[in-house]
Design goal:
The structure holds two protein chains of two kinds. Chain A is 0% helix and 50% strand. Chain A has no helices and eleven strands. Chain B is 0% helix and 50% strand. At the A-B interface, strand 5 and strand 10 of A face strand 4, strand 5 and strand 10 of B.
Chain lengths: 122, 107
């Protein structure tokens, strides 16, 4: 059974940093692209970042809204995805989901974690 | 960036009704269109991928279709557990983008 479990959320002051983790199990983690998707309170879904699988070099992609402030990485030996967030702003307040892509690059998000709440507030 | 325009933003329907939600892409995305269902406080769940393929375990009352850059999610006979918010999403190119969502409420 595929499982994705996020951790690391919490309350942080504007300008602060936070690192989210996503522990994966039930599939060969290194074979799949992984993503972060967020949802601000009462709002829709927003793609944040994707990291490709190891075969394609672990390339990283970011939404313009987080580029230069967030860094996605993966540790295939630990089956874990990370999102390092710097210079956090109030508008980054959201539930952050990690999501697994299908095997092919254009595939949908077929599994999602339960989400981690990040609150940016003084 | 590819814009995904989803309509309506909300609708009220009764159990047993046929419900249709549409999503229009701002440019060609081939068949790279996915539909998700989200219930309050829960993660999204994949329903339809590649415009018309039913994800494993999803009831057959959910159907996806495509006409050019217009995509449709149809629920043939709405069930009590289908009251939720539905999102379309293009996986053709980054930035990956979602529609604004359609909240399906009980009439």
């Amino acid at each position: 059974e595929v499982q994705l479990v996020e951790s690391g959320g919490g309350l942080v002051q504007p300008g602060g940093s936070l690192r989210l983790s996503c522990a994966a199990s039930g599939f060969t983690f290194s074979n799949y692209a992984m993503s972060w998707v967020r949802q601000a309170p009462g709002k829709g879904l927003e793609w944040v970042s994707t990291i490709s699988n190891s075969d394609t070099g672990g390339n990283t992609y970011y939404a313009d809204s987080v580029k230069g402030r967030f860094t996605v990485s993966r540790d295939n030996s630990k089956n874990t995805l990370y999102l390092q967030m710097y210079s956090l702003r109030a508008e980054d307040t959201a539930v952050y989901y990690c999501a697994k892509r299908g095997y092919n690059w254009n595939d949908a998000f077929d599994y999602w974690g339960q989400g981690a709440l990040v609150t940016v507030s003084p | 960036d590819i814009q995904m325009t989803q309509s309506p933003s909300s609708l009220s329907a009764s159990v047993g009704d046929r419900v249709t939600i549409t999503c229009r892409a701002s440019q060609s995305i081939s068949n790279y269109l996915n539909w998700y269902q989200q219930k309050p406080g829960k993660a999204p769940k994949l329903l339809i991928y590649a415009a018309s393929s039913l994800q494993s375990g999803v009831p057959s009352r959910f159907r996806g279709s495509r006409s050019g850059t217009d995509f449709t999610l149809t629920i043939s006979s709405l069930q009590p557990e289908d009251f939720a918010t539905y999102y379309c999403q293009q996986s053709y190119d980054t930035p990956l983008t979602f529609g604004g969502g359609t909240k399906v409420e009980i009439k």
